[in-house]
Specification:
Isopropylmalate Dehydrogenase; 12 strands; 331 residues; Rossmann fold; globular; ten-stranded mixed beta sheet; single chain; binds 1,4-dihydronicotinamide adenine dinucleotide; binds magnesium ion; alpha/beta
Length: 331
């Protein structure tokens, strides 16, 4: 029997290309796992009327971790549709969305960036409570003390294992009730933590600082939508969405995925960069305590990113298959 059981959810679009690639890389690295294929996403919704079937819940609940591809959320949301990944994050209380951003040897990347963006993952504006009254539309944002406390502690603990610097990013100057609760809860809890350097930063300034001087950051913590936006910005600093990975982590379960979406513009062409999903698998391995295999895959990724073949998003001409084969050959 394999040491681990891992759920694989391809989802939509390029999810069908990058998940099988990541699985082959895990096999090549000697990760001892048995895989459970599960379905979720918009394609599944169109056929079955729900984005996430019971079998997928079973797969998530009865495995050690889940690797997720990407899921489409159409801008024109059909009745009854709920985006698969947001649903899973909320259902399993995966309150911490952890998005490491590190310089890798690819063209155009900023030098010496090594930060982790920690995004509150279950509430804020992404509770998806919107309504319309005639020509007026209103969206709720939900912030609770408990969730702010949980994410604040998570980010502080992570910073303590790194360079001991935490930036609490907020917009409490305009939204003192909701953003203020988030900010003050975290500052009260970890603001004076021994050995931790905590500072606060308003989100618009944080966006500018990330572009001008990302090397100043270690761990950043923020509410859901700010984290969604700034983590794509952070990905853009070091090579883009093709290499940006994330973990959705709760007390019981972890779902690991790329930062990118289903990329309908390139889906089905065999050109997607699987690195983001491979690096999500690396985060999964670290979470499981398999640091040796994680480290080997990470080194191999950097080697191929540096020497090629590179995929198109990084200025190369390699297909998903050519890149994956090179990675596996090196491993
Ligand atoms: P996207 O992340 O899918 O794509 C943005 C751009 O980056 C596109 O030009 C795409 O071709 C490129 N790109 C993304 N991943 C790539 C990869 N691995 N290799 C090479 N190029 C890559 O974002 P977009 O287009 O805004 O959204 C498409 C769909 O994905 C939407 O329905 C959106 O809701 C969904 N989405 C889902 C996410 C998730 O499942 N966690 C996250 C972000 C978006
Ligand atoms: Mg996003």
């Amino acid at each position: 029997m394999a040491k681990y059981r891992i759920a694989l959810i391809e989802g939509d679009g390029i999810g069908h290309e990058v998940i099988p690639a990541a699985r082959r890389v895990l096999d090549a690295a000697g990760f001892d796992a048995e895989y459970v294929d599960a379905q979720a996403g918009y394609e599944y919704f169109l056929d079955h009327g729900t984005s996430t079937p019971q079998a997928t819940y079973d797969a998530v609940e009865n495995t050690h971790a889940t690797l997720f591809g990407a899921a489409t959320s159409p801008t024109d949301k059909p009745d009854g549709f709920k985006g698969a990944i947001r649903h899973l994050r909320q259902k399993y209380g995966l309150y911490a969305n952890v998005r490491p951003t590190k310089t890798r040897p690819v063209p155009g990347a900023y030098e010496n960036v090594d930060l982790v963006l920690v995004r509150e993952n279950t509430q804020g504006l992404y509770v998806e409570q919107e309504r319309r009254y005639g020509d007026t539309a209103i969206a709720d944002t939900v912030i609770t003390k408990d969730a702010s406390l949980a994410i604040g502690k998570f980010a502080a603990n992570l910073a303590m294992q790194r360079r001991r610097k935490l930036s609490v990013v907020h917009k409490a100057n305009v939204l003192p009730v909701t953003q203020g609760l988030f900010l003050n809860t975290i500052m009260d809890e970890v603001g004076a933590m021994d050995g931790l350097n905590v500072s606060t930063m308003i989100v618009d300034n944080a966006a500018m600082q990330l572009v001008r001087n990302p090397q100043q950051f270690d761990v950043l913590v923020m509410t859901n939508m700010f984290g969604d936006i700034l983590s794509d910005l952070a990905a853009g600093l070091v090579g883009g969405l093709g290499i940006a990975a994330s973990g959705n982590i709760g007390d019981k379960f972890g779902i690991f995925e790329s930062v990118h979406g289903s990329a309908p513009d390139i889906a089905g062409q065999g050109v997607a960069n699987p690195t983001a999903t491979v690096l999500a698998a690396v985060l999964m391995l670290q979470h499981l305590g398999e640091t040796e295999i994680a480290g080997r895959i990470d080194v191999a990724v950097n080697k191929i990113l540096a020497e090629g073949p590179r995929t198109r998003d990084l200025g190369g001409t390699a297909s998903t298959e050519e890149f994956t084969k090179a990675l596996i050959a090196y491993l």
